[in-house]
């Protein structure tokens, strides 16, 4: 068990290294950083040369790479071009907002999606079940920014129920969280339904019923536990997806989180912030996946990657 | 008499080819056929855009901005879906938007199919070190959210059709790589492969002449569904202002520009959004029906 965790932690190292290398390559591809820092095309060649030396860009590529990676793991991304403060603190400042949104979306996915799927699976063929599954299908096919705009049109423009931008209160979270979780919610619902249907036809369910256990008891004590594994896998995959979705959703609702900051930084060519944001998000996703994998081993003792 | 005999004999020996069977199964699925029809409409719009569109999508008419659709007050027959903030015809821009999205979607899906299948087949056939490296890279790439990586790449390379094509093609290979490799691992041990080796067929020939045709089915389904994913990715990036460069119409750009005027000029966003949704929906319907049609277990009768 501990061995498994340690192995997985060690496996994170090449992944983080890979991400760092990827960022390094990207930075080189985006043009000469010295020109950018020096102030653009109008900067005089002497200034550019000086900046180049300051940034260490005149050293051999390999040396630059080593310096880059060593700075990265100390979370030193340099200074933001726009805000003249360390890039990392710019990112970290917006992190809580995104976490709040992501967590809300995550909870929504689990609670609403899972229950809807279970209900639909238990009441197979019923009207409610079919309605839920049609909604789930739509939820999976609808582009999430389209859903966001529709929600704004309906709940902000037509009926002034929720604000379409801003943050700080619960009401600001509602629409963005729904938009962010729609796809995953729908997917979990469909999975939960098919899982329930499959489990409910098993022999041990019949036995439990024959022994006199109530329907609710059957569901909660026997059925649900045994269909959790594919659900947990999908939840694990959803995390990365939702984080990516955060970028779009935060832009739609002008939500001041890490995602919208990434977009702004790119549009402003603020490369240190872009690097810092990508790195932070990537590490977060990798860590979340690791946690999900560890949860996996608790759920099914048969799964051990030795 | 001979006529009857011939007919009877023909009936006995009538064998429905596999391809025909698959087609039968596909067209029996009503949802799939609906999707196909819708998709065909979208494709026609994309291909025949210059002929179908009533106006030029780029012509601005600043005296006629925010003209509502024809059925609303103030609408005109010249602009059935109204005009946008620069007086451009929304219907024409929506039709031309199909062109950009569908072209990018199909092309990037096909390129990534080729790359992904090649990588998967080679990795699966060779096995050992190459296999684990390729799968490791695929795992890392798959676990990263697209928009984060995509935005970083756009930051480095700049927006535009060509860069989007490169980004999407290089991102999408992982969909096929894992599946292709898995299929190859099983197919590799089949008898006909052993036989081919024995008679001296070279590695490349075995991989692409013998194994590949037999693993195509799931890959085609993935290809179909990934077109929708690519279109969504392009629209998302364009929405953020990091995709197709204006003034070329793209549904994503239209959605984002239109969002500012949702309260006053809802038609700016609704029509491109509907077009996008119908396209995605139809591709998914076709893809799902195709998946069921290719799976003999789900054939009826």
Describe this protein's structure:
The complex is a heterodimer of chains A (306) and B (301). Chain A is mainly alpha-helical and 306 residues long. Chain A folds into two domains: 2-72, no CATH class; 94-299, MetI-like fold, CATH 1.10.3720.10. Chain A is 78% helix and 0% strand. The model of chain A has no long low-confidence stretch (mean pLDDT 80). With 301 residues, chain B is an all-alpha fold. Chain B has one domain (51-285): MetI-like (MetI-like fold, Orthogonal Bundle), CATH 1.10.3720. Helices cover 72% and strands 0% of the residues of chain B. Chain B is built from twelve helices and no strands. In chain B, α11 (251-259) runs antiparallel to α12. Chain B is elongated and about 75 Å long. Chain A binds chain B through residues 14-15, 18-19, 22-23, 26-27, 29-30, 140-143, 145-146, 149-150, 152-153, 156-157, 240-241, 243-245, 247-248, 251-252, 259, 262-263, 265-267, 269, 271, 274, 277-278, 281-282, 285-286, 289, and chain B through 136-137, 140, 143-149, 151-157, 228, 232, 235-236, 239-242, 252, 255, 258-259, 262-263, 266, 269-270, 273, 276-277, 280-281, 284.
In short:
The complex is a heterodimer of chains A (306) and B (301). Chain A is mostly helical.
Supply the key terms:
heterodimer; A: 306 residues; mainly alpha; MetI-like fold; 2 domains; 13 helices; 78% helix; 0% strand; B: 301 residues; 72% helix
């Amino acid at each position: 068990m501990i061995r498994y965790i340690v192995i997985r932690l060690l496996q994170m190292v090449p992944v983080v290294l890979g991400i760092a290398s990827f960022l390094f390559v990207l930075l080189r591809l985006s043009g000469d950083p010295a020109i950018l820092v020096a102030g653009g095309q109008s900067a005089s060649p002497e200034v550019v040369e000086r900046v180049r030396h300051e940034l260490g860009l005149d050293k051999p590529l390999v040396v630059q790479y080593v310096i880059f990676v060593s700075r990265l793991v100390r979370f030193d991304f340099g200074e933001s071009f726009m805000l003249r403060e360390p890039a990392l603190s710019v990112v970290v400042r917006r992190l809580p907002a995104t976490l709040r949104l992501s967590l809300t979306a995550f909870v929504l996915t689990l609670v609403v999606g899972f229950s809807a799927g279970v209900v639909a699976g238990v009441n197979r063929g019923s009207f409610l079940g079919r309605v839920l599954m049609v909604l789930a299908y739509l939820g999976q096919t609808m582009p999430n920014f389209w859903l966001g705009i529709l929600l704004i049109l309906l709940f902000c423009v037509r009926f002034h129920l929720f604000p379409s931008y801003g943050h700080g209160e619960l009401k600001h979270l509602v629409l963005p969280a729904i938009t962010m979780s729609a796809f995953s919610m729908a997917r979990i619902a469909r999975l939960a339904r098919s899982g329930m249907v499959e489990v409910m036809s098993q022999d041990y369910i019949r036995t439990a019923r024959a022994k006199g256990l109530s329907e609710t008891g059957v569901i909660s004590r026997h059925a649900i536990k045994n269909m959790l594994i594919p659900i947990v896998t999908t939840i694990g995959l959803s995390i990365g997806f939702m984080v990516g979705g955060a970028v779009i959703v935060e832009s739609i609702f002008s939500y001041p989180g890490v995602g919208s900051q990434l977009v702004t930084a790119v549009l402003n060519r603020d490369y240190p912030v872009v690097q810092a944001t990508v790195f932070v998000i990537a590490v977060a996703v990798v860590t979340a996946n690791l946690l999900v994998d560890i949860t996996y081993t608790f759920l099914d003792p048969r799964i051990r990657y030795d | 008499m001979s006529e009857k005999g011939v007919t009877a004999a023909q009936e006995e020996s009538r064998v429905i080819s596999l391809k025909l069977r698959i087609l039968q199964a596909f067209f029996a699925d009503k949802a799939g056929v609906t999707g196909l029809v819708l998709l065909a409409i979208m494709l026609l719009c994309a291909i025949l855009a210059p002929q179908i569109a009533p106006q030029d999508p780029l012509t601005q008419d600043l005296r006629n901005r925010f003209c509502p659709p024809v059925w609303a007050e103030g609408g005109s027959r010249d602009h059935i879906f109204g005009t946008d903030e620069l007086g451009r015809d929304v219907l024409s821009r929506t039709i031309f938007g199909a062109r950009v999205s569908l072209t990018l979607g199909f092309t990037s899906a096909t390129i990534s199919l080729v790359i992904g299948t090649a990588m998967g087949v080679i990795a699966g056939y060779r096995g050992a070190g190459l296999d684990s490296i390729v799968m490791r890279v695929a795992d890392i790439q798959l676990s990263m959210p697209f928009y984060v990586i995509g935005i970083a790449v756009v930051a480095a390379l700049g927006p535009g059709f060509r860069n989007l094509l490169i980004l999407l093609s290089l991102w999408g290979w992982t969909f096929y790589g894992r599946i292709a490799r898995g299929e190859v691992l099983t197919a590799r041990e089949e008898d006909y492969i052993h036989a081919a080796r024995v008679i001296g067929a070279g590695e490349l020939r075995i991989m692409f002449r013998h194994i590949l045709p037999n693993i195509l089915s799931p890959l085609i389904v993935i290809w179909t569904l990934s077109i929708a994913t690519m279109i969504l990715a392009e629209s998302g990036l364009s929405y953020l202002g990091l995709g197709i460069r204006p003034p070329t119409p793209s549904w994503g750009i239209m959605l984002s520009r239109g969002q500012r005027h949702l309260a006053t000029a809802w038609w700016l966003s609704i029509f491109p959004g509907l077009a996008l949704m119908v396209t995605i929906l139809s591709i998914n319907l076709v893809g799902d029906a195709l998946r069921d049609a290719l799976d003999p277990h789900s054939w009826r009768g």
